[in-house]
Amino acid sequence: MESDFGVPGELSDLQKKRAEYQPGLPPCLQGTTVRVEFGDFTTTADPASNHVISHSFPHTYGQRLAHFLRATAKIPDAQIITEHPVMKVGVVFCGRQSPGGHNVIWGLYDTIKLHNPKSTLIGFVGGTEGLFAQKTLEVTNEILSAYKNQGGYDMLGRTKDQIRTTEQVNAALKTCQTLQLDGLVIIGGVTSNTDAAQLAETFAVAGCSTKVVGVPVTLNGDLKNQFVEANVGFDTVCKINSQLISNVCVDALSAEKYYYFIRLMGRKASHVALECTLQSHPNMVILGEEVAASKLTIFDITKQICDAVQARAEQDKYHGVVLIPEGLVESIPELYALLQEIHSLHKQGVSAEKISSQLSPWASALFEFLPPFIRRQLLLHPESDDSAQLSQIEMEKLLAQLVETEINKRLKEGTYKGKKFNAICHFFGYQARGSLPSKFDCDYAYVLGHICYHILAAGLNGYMATITNLKNPVNKWRCGATPITAMMTVKQWARGQGSSSIGKPAVHPATVDLKGKAYGLLRQNAAKFLMEDIYRNPGPLQFEGPGSDSKTITLSVEDQDYMGRIKKLQDYLDKVKSIVKPGCSQDVLKAALSAMASVTDILSVMSSPSYGSHAHAPL
Amino acid sequence: MESDFGVPGELSDLQKKRAEYQPGLPPCLQGTTVRVEFGDFTTTADPASNHVISHSFPHTYGQRLAHFLRATAKIPDAQIITEHPVMKVGVVFCGRQSPGGHNVIWGLYDTIKLHNPKSTLIGFVGGTEGLFAQKTLEVTNEILSAYKNQGGYDMLGRTKDQIRTTEQVNAALKTCQTLQLDGLVIIGGVTSNTDAAQLAETFAVAGCSTKVVGVPVTLNGDLKNQFVEANVGFDTVCKINSQLISNVCVDALSAEKYYYFIRLMGRKASHVALECTLQSHPNMVILGEEVAASKLTIFDITKQICDAVQARAEQDKYHGVVLIPEGLVESIPELYALLQEIHSLHKQGVSAEKISSQLSPWASALFEFLPPFIRRQLLLHPESDDSAQLSQIEMEKLLAQLVETEINKRLKEGTYKGKKFNAICHFFGYQARGSLPSKFDCDYAYVLGHICYHILAAGLNGYMATITNLKNPVNKWRCGATPITAMMTVKQWARGQGSSSIGKPAVHPATVDLKGKAYGLLRQNAAKFLMEDIYRNPGPLQFEGPGSDSKTITLSVEDQDYMGRIKKLQDYLDKVKSIVKPGCSQDVLKAALSAMASVTDILSVMSSPSYGSHAHAPL
Q1: What is the pLDDT of residues A300-356, one digit of tens each?
Q2: Which of A187, A241, A251 would best serve as a mutation to test chain B binding (most B beta carbons within 10 A)?
Q3: Strands (DSSP E) along A297-352, which ranges?
Q4: Residue B28 and residue A199: Cα distance in Å, rounded?
Q5: In this structure, are B442 and B426 located in the same domain?
Q6: In this predicted model, what pLDDT tens digit does every residue of A29-72 receive, in sequence order?
Q7: Which residues form the Phosphofructokinase domain (chains A, B) (predicted)?
């Protein structure tokens, strides 16, 4: 199997041209001298989890933030890394392939070789399987040349398997020790970065000198938090999907006779669906987060869509486009509960054929109501992370069928007076994630690759490479490193029958923030999108000319630069200090005391564990 | 409904930029003075059909070819059209939307207004329905501005309905007479252009002064013959699909665990599948034409794929990509026969639920063997052109299931020793045809629009706008007009039970030429594609920079320039004449006589009706 990897096929003209594209570097990473500034010690966003996380990660919890600065930056405490001994670094692709993944390896390779030509980069072949079995390929410029700025993970291959069981963790440890790796770079999403943190802790405990670094690469876009603004692959996948959605919108409007139901990738969270909606303006999107927040049943959703179809029919419109995130099935309360029962029976070893007869009465009634195709799909074994096989469950077909049945019923009753309802279903999954990466993803991944080296050079373990200020051009990007534990939370509720009531610390997928600006933009326009067909076509992904430098709308509208805002707060505090010095008037002191007492009171309440547990409702 | 058309939505940055793109014109169409050269009187490619066609089209059969030349061209017979009276032209979109359709209207509008600003262009709203019901929209520059170089047919809308029944033809005639149209331009594929020819003849018989012009616009790429090298939309659709196929190939190679079965649009012919294969190098493609030529059964095809899966497994490869044209079902002899029985029962008014009980014993046995989902799809009503609802019949799923069953059987028998076979199915249909058109399609459509005007200005009726030498840059393109009847043939065999044994003259879809160069290229590389995974990614459709000027491989490799070669032959004949003049030697005369006798003998045989009927085997 190995022999295929690193052996490129024939490149098209565009692929060749893309292979020549050289991503830029922000000023802080240019040249061979980089300063590291160590910032604050970190905590986690959920105060209720601190104790559990610090207990689980005694060696790697609470470490300081790191910022990479130019050698000439005027920060007194920053330290310049001057020694660059020979280094041996391993790199592995984990989870679903995301456009841009190859560029992380390229960036890492370039900077490793720049700092010491004798250093080596070892790729694990076939993903984590290769990590466990020590199947390696030394990355060279010759091998890289055909994968620069190219999509897929085919230079090394990948796996969806996790690094979780004791055997797996031990195998990884043994590999790193045998190969005497100084660093291990794990390229992946929330699960893989959780695994990276766990490995880092295990290695520290075992006295293994390999430092573990995570890189946020996932087309789902759900590895988002105070430190991580975007994920490699999300930009490309949203652009490719938006183009296809827009093409379908144009099609709908030209033919005027079909409703298209399109399911999009993105796992549990609906980031891809939200971004594509903002780019393409389809008539409707059913976000999993809205459904969960409003506890909408499958019948509520069906009714919503039917009402929309009816309202459009009254304006003589018999076409439309409805987007559905692949995670929807787990957001619908009754379907989620049914899935939990099924998965629990799977765990008890009940065979798929016998599960339906062992369901509780209510679950059985729901199950029997569903069409056969969806029953078969719900009965599939859960994935290794306990979630349903979301890519296999055709919710778009289920909704289209239910809507058709309901519209036909309304037609008979005389409440719907329009033409026949025709639906065509699509799943846009696999056709986007192997795409040539957008310029943004090429740049972002390449720079992250560079940061990985600097994290290792600074001797840090259990960190993720991060870049903030991403909505600005590359030369304004701020590069840093964050302990992965600072992104972890602990779920406080039971999940499935018989499982424990407190989860393990993990980097959990961020869901769409229903109070965020991107979602606000959708709400603001939803009525227009629904009725007015103001479809918008971002067009095919461009590498030159107009559109080639565009970024996702989510990234552009969200408040970002968390670290910049932390800095701003510190400036305020400094300013208060400088005003309220001995000698200031009684009135100034009184005002300052009163105001600060109020601020600290509010923040104490918001930061208490009991407040935190309310603020984090289950998905 | 009308109010929506011509009302643009919000354009993205790329859409805006594309709207500013100005396609070029070949020298012969630049300026306001164009010469028309009338060439040979035409015949048809199939000598056996001449009689039937000339009988059906007494007014429009056999007309001369027309070539458009620069005013300064040194062709003595050519005539310059100097008068450009006020003209009123109607235009209608027919059939499936193809990227570039809007540009035909734009080109037509520009040249109409250039020659006489008082002339008007009337668009029929909602396709042929608008034509029958006189629902119109005057095309203005303001309306056009948001549709220039944009995809879809949403400026006017479209329908799939034909202009075929007496009522429809009469309604169209009435519309043209009422609106006093000088010309009617019909934008569509084989069916619509056949209808255009029929309308032209009917109008001529009725003494209606409206001249009818057809334009070859169909993403299927099957309106191909001596006069038509390519169709508007094919280039874009193949590029978009090839990108998606390539993305899936990269995905397959990255994950190494799935076989992807992808069905492509293209109706009965496999041009799209062939072109995409040449662009993307997937492992396999099942061309309908190969299947029909070799009379492969569904079991033969299943076995072919299984053998490929097995051969790849022996090389430790468990992934792959298989392309399937949507017309495949009608190319498989036993499925086609089953469909014919079903359609015939439909025609007899048997309801879908009862059809299965009335099938002949063998058809019933086959029907019962098939999985329920495909049975339901086969029972769908045939389309208006008597073909099955190809877009609805999921042959990719059927093949994936049959292959899985067969591989599992081989696994039990011990002949297949590899890992489990996993298939994922896709239908790439609706997501490509609404795309922003490629530069080639923008240019091609725009220039065709110009030609439509010149055809009308020359007073021609029943012609199609044609451009040859397309593989060269725009300034080398040769523009002309061909009587649509010259592209017609008559099918000589029975189609379905109870239908007549001789068909009507029609422009039939051209199938992939199994002796052609494009197919030769596939055959030459098929073994490598199958085993070596030399996937190639043409990347997203580009509008600037590398790749933006590429054309389809089919167009680039095929021998083209039919008219150029006719010209070359005439040069040979002239040369023989000039050598063999009175006074030449006896030997020269003897050699010439002998050689020419042999040439004329061969050509006489090849052009005889009986030879022709053999050469045109049924699809």
Answers
A1: 999 999 999 999 999 999 999 999 999 999 999 999 999 999 999 999 999 888 998
A2: A251
A3: 320-325
A4: 71
A5: no
A6: 998 888 888 888 888 877 778 888 999 999 999 999 999 988 77
A7: 88-453
Q: Please report the pLDDT score of residue A580 as a whole number.
A: 84
- Judged against a pLDDT cut of 70, whether residue B230 lies above it is answered with yes
Task: Choose among B259, B377, B365, B271: nearest CA to B329.
Answer: B377
Quote the CA–CA distance of B394 and A262 in Å, as a whole number. 17
Is B5 within the bounds of a domain?
A: no
Residue B297 lies in a domain: yes
Please indicate, yes or no, whether residues A374 and A442 belong to a single structural domain of this protein: no
Cα–Cα distance for residue pair A123/A130, rounded to 1 Å: 9
**Average pLDDT value for residue range A586-604:** 83
Count H helices, E strands: chain B? Answer: 24, 14
Is residue A241 scored above 50 in pLDDT? yes
**Does one domain contain both A350 and A263?**
yes
**Closest Cβ opposite residue B434 in set A153, A250, A427:** A250
Q: Tokens 């629990």, residue?
A: A344
Query: Which domain CATH number covers B257?
Result: 3.40.50.460
Look up residue B106 and give its two tokens: 């734009």
Q: What is the pLDDT of residue A594?
A: 82
**Residues of A in Cβ contact (< 8 Å) with B248:** 430-431, 434
Residue A612 has pLDDT above 70, yes or no: no
Average pLDDT of the residues in B426-449:
94
Contact A255 B97 (CB under 8 A): yes
**Eight-class DSSP state of B491:** -
Contacts of B317 in chain A (CB under 8 A): 1, 4
In B503-561, alpha helices (H): 517-532, 553-557
Which residue out of B5, B10, B12 would a mutagenesis test of the A interface target, given it has the greatest number of A Cβ atoms within 10 Å?
Answer: B12
Which residues constitute the domain of residue A28? 13-70+79-233+437-488
CA distance A89 to B489: 68
pLDDT of residue A617: 37
pLDDT at site B493: 57
Which CATH number characterizes residue B27's domain? 3.40.50.450
Chain A contacts of B12, Cβ < 8 Å? 279, 536-539, 547
CA nearest A438: which of A278, A233, A272?
Answer: A233
Q: In chain B, which residue's Cα lies nearest the Cα of A98?
A: B251
What confidence score (pLDDT) does residue B501 get? 46
Contact check, Cβ <8 Å, B247/A151 = yes
Do A302 and A273 reside in the same domain of the chain?
yes
Minimum distance, in Å, between the CA of residue B283 and any CA atom of chain A: 13
Residue A619 clears pLDDT 70, i.e. is over it: no
- Measure in Å the smallest separation between the Cα of B313 and chain A Cα atoms: 10
State residue B312 phi and psi, 5-degree precision: -70, -40
Looking at the DSSP bridge assignments, the partners of residue A19 are none
Rounded Cα gap, residues B576 and B569, in angstroms: 11
DSSP secondary structure letter of residue A501: S
Residues B365, B444, single domain; the answer is no
Give the pLDDT band (50/70/90) at residue A8.
low
Rounded average pLDDT over B310-326: 95
Same domain, residue pair A218 and A345: no
Asked which of A488, A507, A531 is the last residue of a domain, the reply is: A488
Average pLDDT over residues B293-320: 95
Q: What is the DSSP letter of A506?
A: B
Tell me if residue A420 falls in helix, strand or coil: coil
pLDDT on residue B82: 81
* Domain count along chain B: 2
Mutate to test the interface with B, among A124, A317, A420, A431 (most CBs of B within 10 A): A431
Domain annotation covers residue B510: no
Same domain, B88 and B155: yes
Encoding tokens for residue A332?
């619908």
In a domain? residue A585: no
The verdict on A92 and A144 lying in the same domain is yes
